[in-house]
Amino acid sequence: MITCYLRYVIDPYRLAEFEAYAKLWIPLVNRMGGIHHGYFLPGEGANNIAVALFSFPSLAAYEAYRASIPGDRRCQEALALADRTRCIVSYQRSFMRPVLDADCERPGD
């Protein structure tokens, strides 16, 4: 499994628009074979940083998802919302390998 970590710099005056964008992508990623873990919007502290986390079974599955975005009408609508509202200033994408509860040893094992 590979988890994509997206760190967004957002326009804090367009938080509602960014939240609408986020709500579009969660079901899209899930429909396209991923598992979306959610968007995390500013609360306390920096008012212009948001994070999204989603996983795919492999990097190849993630790349297939990315390749399908240009041909998917709903994905294009989500991207157009961000372009139209300019709610995203920039973003950074990183890939991580999760360590999950199932990977842990239990006392007495």
TrEMBL record:
Domain NIPSNAP: 7-99
Gene3D superfamilies referenced in this protein's UniProt entry, alphabetically: 3.30.70.100
Taxonomy, superkingdom: Bacteria
Protein name, as recorded: NIPSNAP domain-containing protein
Organism this protein belongs to: Caulobacter rhizosphaerae
